[in-house]
Amino acid sequence: MKISVLGPAGSYSEIAAHAFLSIVLDAQMPELLYCSSIENTVLSLFEDPCSDNGAVCAVIPIENSIEGAVGVSMDLLLEKDVSIIAELILPVNHCLLVPRSAAQKPDFSPDKIEVVYSHPQGLYQCRTYIRNHLKNASLIEVDSTSKAATRVAEMSAGAGLGAGAGAESVACSGADLTAGSAAGSTVGSAVSSAGADKIRAAIASAAAGEKYGLKAIDCHIQDTPNNSTRFLFLARSEMLPHLKAYADDFNLHILPENLSQTGSGAVFYKTSVIVSPVSDKPGALFKILEAFSDHEINLTRIESRPSKKSLGEYNFYIDFEGSPSDKNVADALNLVKKRSARLKNLGTYGRILSGRQ
Ligand SMILES: O=C(O)C(=O)C[C@]1(C(=O)O)C=C[C@@H](O)C=C1
């Protein structure tokens, strides 16, 4: 059984996978498949699970306490025939990682750093630190925080390993990263990455720093101390009936009926759905929410996402406590189905809170 995560090794997605598996795993540690993007992590579920690119379960970040929804993950939940089998909330403590050679320079200080790499979420979650301490740095978005760490390690290891290998797009400079300008896009200017003497840094986990031989010169640099990211564990929907056999092989207790047996603290069931309201009708969203309220169902999250069909048209992602095997949930879902244009059930799963990193 392979579990796909955003790679390379040292990403928060990998830490989430390990945290999850340490809670639910009794025996063998499944192999991790490191993917180059969140999209490829999900696509691995649609490859032959026995092939090099295939996995049975995928781990993706879905929302962060500072930056909110991870858009690509939200879209993939709608587009792909996947089900949620578990969730985990991971405390995320970012570090500023630099090559040891740079940190050892007598006149080194963070304001000497000229380039900072991270996943966009990492850059946004550290906006205040970047503004205050990394005033002279250009910010470069890469596919993961661990990718950022490898990039810095490779570039410091020698001009050969990637330096000058092409243009890098710069999100914006540290001084420009204000609440208004940071939200999402990469501004298209390109700078050459040549210049082996430049001081580069990555925003990533302490584990990534250790793995790639970088020095953490500052930790807990995110905007709020209790930063956390919620991760989802996905399986291809049509694999669900077979998943139990896979899980049993590995003594993995990831399926809802087994979760309460893990003895790992509070586990309760949640269900996630995506609802497309009938368009342009007064009270359409209200009628959907009323169905949950009338059946005394506690919503834990509601998030809108553009339908991409036309401006002002949205899908609503709704998470709530309970399972369709509860009568009130089944009745509410029947009503929501009648009152909406489309209802996609993403699954019922257990919630597990991980310990601190
Ligand atoms: O880049 C990583 O290390 C990831 O696992 C991705 C990700 C995300 O997309 O939210 C996960 C946790 C942190 O919020 C920052 C980045």
From TrEMBL:
PANTHER family: PREPHENATE DEHYDRATASE P PROTEIN, PREPHENATE DEHYDRATASE-RELATED. Residues 273-350 form the ACT domain. It comes from Methanimicrococcus stummii. GO terms for cellular component: cytoplasm. Its EC number is 4.2.1.51. GO terms for molecular function: prephenate dehydratase activity. This is prephenate dehydratase. Pathway: Amino-acid biosynthesis; L-phenylalanine biosynthesis; phenylpyruvate from prephenate: step 1/1. Residues 2-236 form the Prephenate dehydratase domain. The lineage of its organism: Archaea, Methanobacteriati, Methanobacteriota, Stenosarchaea group, Methanomicrobia. Pfam families: ACT, PDT.
